[in-house]
Specification:
Helices cover 36% and strands 26% of the residues. It contains twelve helices and 14 strands. It has helices at 45-52, 74-79, 96-106, 111-124, 140-151, 170-185, 197-203, 221-228, 243-253, 274-287, 302-310, 333-336, and strands spanning 5-16, 19-30, 34-38, 60-65, 68-69, 81-84, 158-162, 189-193, 206-211, 214-219, 231-237, 259-261, 266-271, 292-298. Helix 5 runs parallel beside helix 6 (170-185) and helix 9 (243-253) crosses helix 10.
Length: 337
């Protein structure tokens, strides 16, 4: 692994009984960059995270974090990586300061160093005023910031954020995005798994899409969108009974099969030349006396790319093959030395 590559995996394979969770996963993250790892539930994201953070051994393959082989030298790898899981791993009975001080001590810091680092992070994450309050009274966004601060106590060069905004309101999500941006500005390398495609769109320098244990696509957000091709024409029918006619017209002017949302009276179809297709669709509908409530013409989104690549929408699904086993927490020397 070259000095400019902070994280890499080579042909990772992991099975659980008859389920092949990983089937030869190769990843690379350049130093100081954000890689977004996307995939349907059960695709293998959490298993990959567990291997990189030394919580799970692969059946075969290799993984490196900051130049450290996670199998040959897991102790060094743990010191080079911080983990913030899907749910904020904070002790609700401790204050914000006490949570961070405890993590510092588990990493082997002296009392003075652990205290100093805790105060630095409380200031950085805008938690000074709540530092002496029990964390059980924190808002979701504050708890998430405290959890991220805990992942940074040892100043690791690599941070893994496993669905960091799960359960947060829009304000909490925006605050978390700001923190991630600050990490990257400081040169930290970030692996981000997320169910929110707009989150990957906003934060990730590059994206890897994983499905059924394999990386099926990689590139920037724009490169993945370009794979879908063309534009999207969307019409909303004025009356529910006109929806069938609108769908038929878009099927005729589009370059693919239309997608209909009956409850929203919305029909969307890929088109090769957007303005031309839009004008033709409206002309045909007007000739039949059909009115439309709304019209939109847009480029493919990351959601479109995800759906095209995996055949399903992003988000959680019942009965997923892979459980969310990380669950939150920091990799602490004292706890897992």
């Amino acid at each position: 692994m070259t000095a400019s590559i902070a994280v890499s995996t080579e042909a990772l394979v992991k099975t659980f009984g008859t389920n092949r969770a990983l089937d030869g996963v190769d990843l690379e993250i350049r130093s100081g960059r954000v890689l977004g790892l996307l995939g349907p539930n059960g695709a293998g994201k959490t298993t990959t995270v567990r291997i990189l953070t030394t919580l799970l051994r692969p059946d075969s393959g290799r993984a490196f974090v900051a130049g450290n082989d996670v199998l040959a030298d897991p102790h060094a790898a743990r010191h080079a990586i911080g983990l913030s899981g899907q749910y904020a791993a904070v002790d609700e009975n401790l204050t914000g300061y006490e949570n961070l001080y405890m993590v510092g001590r588990l990493y082997g810091m002296s009392r003075a160093d652990a205290s100093r680092r805790a105060r630095q992070l409380l200031d950085r994450f805008r938690l000074q005023e709540a530092a002496e309050r029990p964390s059980k009274g924190y808002s979701g966004g504050m708890r998430r910031r405290l959890d991220l601060a805990g992942a940074l106590v040892a100043a690791p060069p690599v941070v893994v954020l496993d669905e960091p905004t799960t359960g947060l309101d829009p304000r909490g999500r925006m605050e978390t995005w700001e923190v991630v941006g600050e990490l990257v500005d400081d040169g930290t390398t970030v692996l981000l798994t997320t169910q929110y495609l707009e989150e990957a769109d906003a934060l990730a320098d590059s994206i890897a899409v994983i499905d059924q244990g394999r990386v099926i696509a990689r590139g920037t957000s724009d490169e993945l969108k370009a794979q879908v091709g063309g534009e999207r024409l969307e019409l909303v029918a004025q009356e529910p009974e006109d929806l069938a006619v609108v769908t038929q017209v878009l099927d005729e002017v589009g370059s693919g099969s239309p997608h209909t949302e009956e409850r929203a009276r919305r029909v969307q179809v890929p088109v090769e030349v957007g303005p031309k297709a839009l004008m033709e669709a409206l002309r045909r509908l007007d000739a039949q006396g059909i009115e439309v409530y709304d019209v939109a013409l847009h480029r493919p989104t990351l959601d479109d790319a995800f759906l095209s690549l995996t055949g399903r929408a992003a988000g959680r699904a019942d009965g997923a093959a892979e459980r969310d086993e990380v669950g939150g927490g920091h990799i602490e020397q004292g706890a897992r030395g």
